[in-house]
UniProtKB/TrEMBL annotation, chain A:
Belongs to the ubiquitin-conjugating enzyme family. Coiled coil: none annotated. One of its GO terms (molecular function) is transferase activity. This is Aminoacyltransferase e1 ubiquitin-activating enzyme-related. It comes from Anaeramoeba ignava. Residues 2-149 form the UBC core domain. Keywords: ATP-binding, Nucleotide-binding, Transferase, Ubl conjugation pathway. It comes from the Eukaryota. The active site is at C86.
Automatic annotation (TrEMBL), chain B:
Residues 327-388 form the FANCL C-terminal domain. Residues 6-91 form the Fanconi anemia complex subunit FancL WD-repeat containing domain. It comes from Anaeramoeba ignava. This is Ubiquitin ligase protein phf9 fanconi anemia group l protein. One of its GO terms (molecular function) is ligase activity.
Length: 156, 399
């Protein structure tokens, strides 16, 4: 109950703002949210639209929500197949001070600032650790082209 | 022949034969009647009786079978049992009936509408703010000499005009409006058939006049309340009216101050309670203690407070509420089970408010509590924060 009440408050606040991440509630369950992140400039994800799903439990905000990428993405901290995200604030460093909007912003930042030392995608991590920017960019851009741009244009 | 006395109290219950061991018929509770049959082997031994009843009654009594068999054993004769029995039904049916009254429109005596209409005509339709769909609750807005609106409520019983309406003037003090109403009521019952020209005349108006006469006594209090409502950011009560003699107002960083007015002497020192982070609140408490003798009863309470505390209360603007709102930093709500946030981060830069229960629940995930106190870090600034286990904390929340 408490979690829904808080999420409802967050939602009304997001609706009042300009909602830059296109955050919406998924399928009539206020615990499940969706957002669309735009690939930041100067990253392999530029021009891509990445859909993420945010699943809260009834222990929210005491426990962090689970965040997954629905759109495949080639990023060291995001699992390519499952879409799992490795982000400290979604794990040990969680605090109720975070909200859905802040999570979206944190993930958006993660896209432009990958942490290759705790990789979920070893290939991407290794490329960055070897400082092979060219490989990282070309792989990233290819997958962005394949999933994040094409998918979007299909929908349109 | 004892059994025949049943017939007086339960006229719809008829013996089936001359042995007087079997009775069938109806039992009437309020406006409902239930088909029901009772049979005994021996008219003297009520404990052997068996009861059959219709579905409706059976459903109603489904969980009172034990009581009924107990009453059967205890009762001396059929009559005393039936009295007990009807009482059991009565208890069971009351909540059901109450629901029905709430959900369905009950046809009323035409005289009800006639009198109500006359009453309202006398009060004046322009004063009626709201009439509910059953025509049983009316909100009347009264004006005082300064054109302030004071709502009062009239609850009209279905038996009106034979039963008196209940006037709720949720005033700081209660009114003795009963005397007059009582008189009216007695008159009404005496002359069972009243016509509107004779005995029944504008009891609403009388009560309203009486209440309006009292308004002058509260002018000073209302001046003060008005002053707070228009010049400060009131967070409690949520929709402040002139009827609540207290105000909780927001000032500065997540801090608030609760003022409960002295109704008789509104300009005297009210009871004051601070809510907020200690480093902000403690100096204010000191100031108040030190300079309380500077309180000038000629001034408005707000002016006195502002002068003594050397602060200016912010006006109600959305930005002040958003940035330094009084809401709990964890559940983002203000009221939680009727409680407002009562724990504040002692870091003066942060000063976030939290509900005791929210903070306890969160800290419990981080560390264990020691002797009822739990230590942890503020979710916002990581400053050390501590709380105690709320008295009414529900253990199941942790599962």
């Amino acid at each position: 109950m408490k979690s829904s009440q808080r999420l409802a408050k967050e939602y009304s606040k997001i609706q009042k703002s300009d909602n830059e991440f296109n955050i919406s509630i998924d399928s009539n369950n206020i615990l499940n949210w969706k957002a669309i992140l735009k690939g930041p400039d100067e990253t392999p994800f530029k021009n891509g639209n990445f859909e993420i799903s945010i699943k809260c439990t009834d222990q929210y905000p005491m426990k962090p929500p689970k965040v997954f990428f629905n759109t495949p993405i080639f990023h060291p901290n995001i699992h390519f197949k499952t879409g799992e995200v490795c982000l400290d604030v979604l794990k040990a460093n969680w605090s109720p001070a975070w909200d859905i909007f802040a999570i979206c912003r944190a993930i958006s930042l993660l896209l432009s600032h990958p942490e290759p030392d705790s990789p979920l995608n070893c290939d991407a991590g290794n490329m960055l650790r070897a400082k092979d920017e060219m490989a990282y960019f070309s792989m990233g851009e290819m997958y962005t082209q394949m999933f994040a741009i094409k998918e979007n244009s299909d929908k349109k | 022949m004892n059994n025949f006395s049943n017939l007086k109290l339960f006229p719809l219950l008829i013996p089936e034969d001359q042995t007087l061991t079997k009775f069938s018929g109806f039992i009437q509770i309020y406006n409902k009647s239930f088909n029901f049959r009772i049979s005994m082997k021996n008219p003297q031994k009520i404990s052997t009786a068996k009861i059959q009843c219709n579905k409706e009654l059976e459903n109603l009594l489904i969980d009172s079978k034990e009581i009924i068999s107990k009453r059967l054993k205890e009762s001396e004769n059929l009559n005393s049992f039936l009295l007990e029995f009807s009482q059991i039904i009565q208890q069971k049916i009351e909540p059901v009936l109450r629901n029905e009254i709430n959900t369905s429109f009950q046809p009323k005596n035409p005289i009800y509408f006639q009198f109500l209409f006359d009453e309202i005509n006398e009060i004046g339709w322009e004063k009626i703010q709201l009439i509910d769909e059953n025509l049983s609750k009316i909100q009347i807005n009264l004006k005082d000499s300064k054109n302030r609106t004071i709502p009062i409520f009239a609850q009209i019983p279905p038996e009106f005009p034979f039963a008196k309406p209940i006037i709720e003037a949720p005033f700081p003090v209660s009114f003795e409006n009963d005397e007059e109403m009582e008189e009216e009521n007695q008159q009404n019952t005496r002359n069972e058939k009243i016509t509107k020209n004779q005995n029944y005349k504008g009891s609403f108006q009388k009560v309203i006049n009486k209440i309006t006469r009292e308004f002058d006594k509260y002018q000073d209090l209302w001046d003060n309340l008005d002053d707070f409502d228009s010049n400060t950011c009131v967070i409690e009560p949520e929709n402040p009216t002139l009827l609540e003699p207290s105000r909780k107002i927001l000032f500065g960083k997540h801090c608030s101050i609760q003022i409960v007015f002295n109704i008789k002497f509104p300009r005297s020192v009210p009871s004051i309670k601070f809510f907020g982070s200690d480093p902000i609140i403690l100096p204010l408490k000191e100031l108040l203690k030190k300079d309380i003798n500077k309180w000038d009863p000629k001034n408005l309470v707000r002016k006195n407070l502002e002068e003594i505390l050397k602060i200016e209360f912010p006006k109600k603007t959305s930005s002040s509420l958003n940035d330094f709102g009084p809401e709990c930093g964890i559940c983002f709500g203000y009221q939680n089970d009727g409680k407002s946030p009562d724990i504040f981060c002692s870091n003066i830069q942060c000063a976030r408010p939290f509900h005791n229960s929210c903070l306890y629940l969160y800290l419990k995930f981080q560390s264990s509590d020691e002797f009822g106190t739990i230590y942890g870090k503020c979710p916002y600034c990581s400053h050390e924060i501590q709380t105690t286990k709320p008295i009414d904390f529900q253990e199941k929340k942790q599962d």
